[in-house]
């Protein structure tokens, strides 16, 4: 609790009374703590690749100067770390954009089927690198809903990208679009977009925290895959902004299914 007191001076020059303001600051303190934690996380995420890069610069100047093989290897690592920092900055900007309520664009009628198939098409090269088959269904007919086309594309891209990254190598990702006359989670008509992989799945105790910024089940694996830990936080924000719902179902060892429900009205 925050207490402020002011003692106005009376006409005789002596304190004429006392005003006391009481304000519950708990929510502000919590917001402040979350902000500090976020800044600490961001610094850590940026510092890790920076430390690696400056270490390799030292090595390239010194011991590895005359070793072409080592030089090539270190330059590859430096390039990978730089790419990771770029992705982190991109994701931070996306997160800031979707969190900025004032800059929200009014929703327009978009064809979700077209956006979903466009996002999936763009991810075929990535899927091929892990020999993953992307199977898309339900996108033959237009499916119009109010929304922001860039943001919805980002939702679909993040979910399918995760399914490719964390799914089984050589496995399959099923992506489908359905129209529901009465979606329970929305209490009305909506579109349901499902992304299901046959990977190792997620242990139940992590499910509730996956959409927190920087929350990862296996940090080493996420980093190895080039992850920033922000993808699902961005997804959750965008879905909320569309007054939609995100459902995550998974069991360790049995693959994961991410479903997005978007209201039609
Ligand atoms: P990242 O950049 O680490 O992929 P995300 O926010 O997209 O960050 O995801 C958070 C974490 O959720 C990931 O690090 C991973 O542990 C887990 N995760 C996300 N999608 C899947 C999936 N399809 N299968 C298994 N785990 C997943």
UniProtKB/TrEMBL annotation:
Gene Ontology molecular function terms on file: kinase activity
The protein's Enzyme Commission number: 2.7.13.3
Catalytic activity: ATP + protein L-histidine = ADP + protein N-phospho-L-histidine
Keyword ATP-binding: no
Statement: the UniProt record of this protein carries the keyword Glycoprotein: no
Boundaries of every Histidine kinase domain copy: 41-265
Keywords: Kinase, Phosphoprotein, Transferase, Two-component regulatory system
Enzyme class at the top of the EC tree: transferase
Signal peptide (residue range): none
Official protein name in the record: histidine kinase
Source organism: Sinisalibacter aestuarii
Record lineage: Bacteria, Pseudomonadati, Pseudomonadota, Alphaproteobacteria, Rhodobacterales
């Amino acid at each position: 609790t925050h207490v402020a007191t002011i003692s106005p001076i009376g006409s005789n020059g002596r304190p004429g009374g006392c005003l006391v303001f009481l304000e519950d600051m708990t929510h502000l303190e919590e917001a402040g703590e979350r902000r500090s934690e976020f800044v600490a996380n961001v610094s850590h995420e940026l510092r890790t690749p920076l430390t690696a890069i400056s270490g390799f610069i030292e090595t390239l100047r010194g011991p590895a100067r005359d070793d072409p093989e080592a030089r090539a290897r270190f330059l590859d690592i430096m390039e990978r770390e730089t790419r990771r920092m770029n992705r982190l900055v991109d994701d931070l900007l996306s997160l800031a954009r979707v969190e900025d309520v004032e800059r929200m664009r009014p929703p327009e009628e978009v064809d979700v089927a077209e956006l979903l198939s466009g996002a999936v098409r763009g991810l075929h090269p990535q899927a091929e690198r892990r020999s993953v088959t992307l199977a898309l269904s339900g996108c033959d007919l237009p499916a119009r809903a109010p929304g922001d086309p860039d943001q919805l594309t980002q939702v679909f891209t993040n979910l399918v990208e995760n399914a490719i990254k964390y799914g089984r190598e050589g496995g399959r990702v099923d992506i489908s679009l359905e129209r529901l006359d009465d979606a329970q989670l929305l209490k009305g008509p909506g579109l349901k977009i499902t992304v299901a992989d046959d990977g190792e799945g997620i242990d139940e105790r992590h499910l509730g925290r996956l959409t927190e910024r920087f929350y990862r089940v296996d940090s080493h694996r996420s980093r190895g895959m080039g992850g920033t830990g922000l993808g699902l936080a961005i997804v959750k924000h965008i879905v909320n902004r569309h007054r939609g719902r995100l459902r995550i179902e998974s069991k360790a060892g049995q693959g994961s299914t991410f479903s997005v429900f978007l209201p039609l009205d």
